[in-house]
Amino acid sequence: MIQKIITIFLLILLAPIFLLVSIVIWLDDGFPLLYIQKNYGKNHTVFSLYKFRTMKKNTPSIPTEEMTHPKKYLLRSGSIIRKFSLDELPQFFNVLNGTMNVIGPRPCMLNNENIIKNLRENYGIDKIKPGITGLAQVNGRDANNYATKVDWDKKYMENQSLLLDLKIILKTFYVILIPKNIKH
């Protein structure tokens, strides 16, 4: 319940940024403003993850790191929106609807079976609710391979605490304000 109250407060506080990003995307490539991606959540439940759209319409629905030439699909504004993680802001609506937490392992796209089945299931990571940010995001972001991301998720699962969550939140602000390890 506390996450939902904080999320409502953040949505009100961030409303001007939501508006600005929406206008930029609309001017860049029109509607829709949001990209709705099917992902695995807790217990492999499929849910709709909300993001601001940073790719052109009709971009293949595969992870960016698996695209041959991802930059040809990127909106002019897409790299800036991604660099500062503004594309992730609509996921606060996922927190409100109960499909995500603010902190936890990142949810996986449906076509990332190698992460879901082979790695996360082995450690039981699929049993916890995914988050907007987590240890993998504040410790390397896109520079991490799948196995390293899952290792960070395992560390989070084994050491969950209010103190760890606070550290992740503080470090999230740092990596957003001083972005690095972003491939696209």
List keywords for this structure.
two-stranded parallel sheet; 8 helices; alpha+beta; globular
What does this structure look like?
With 184 residues, the protein is an alpha+beta fold. 45% of the residues lie in helices and 12% in strands. The strands form two sheets. Strands 2-1-4 form a three-stranded antiparallel β-sheet. Strands 3-5 form a two-stranded parallel sheet.
Helix content range:
40-55%
How is the biggest beta sheet arranged? Answer: 3 strands, antiparallel
- For this entry, what is the oligomeric state of its chains? single chain
What is the chain-wise order of helices and strands? HHEEHHEEHEHHH
Rg, Cα atoms, Å: 16 Å
| Biggest β-sheet: strands ordered side by side in the sheet | 2-1-4
Q: Extract low-pLDDT stretches.
A: none
Identify the overall geometry.
Answer: globular
Tally the helices: what do you get?
8
Structural class designation: alpha+beta
Fraction of residues in β-strands: 5-15%
Average pLDDT confidence is: 90
Number of strands: 5
N- to C-terminal distance: 35 Å
Short description:
The protein is α+β, with helices and mostly antiparallel strands and 184 residues long. The protein contains eight helices and five strands. A hairpin with a 5-residue loop joins β1 (34-40) and β2.
Fold topology:
Elements: H1 2-13, H2 15-29, E1 34-40, E2 46-52, H3 78-83, H4 91-96, E3 101-103, E4 108-109, H5 113-123, E5 131-133, H6 135-138, H7 146-158, H8 162-177
Helix pairs in contact: 5-7
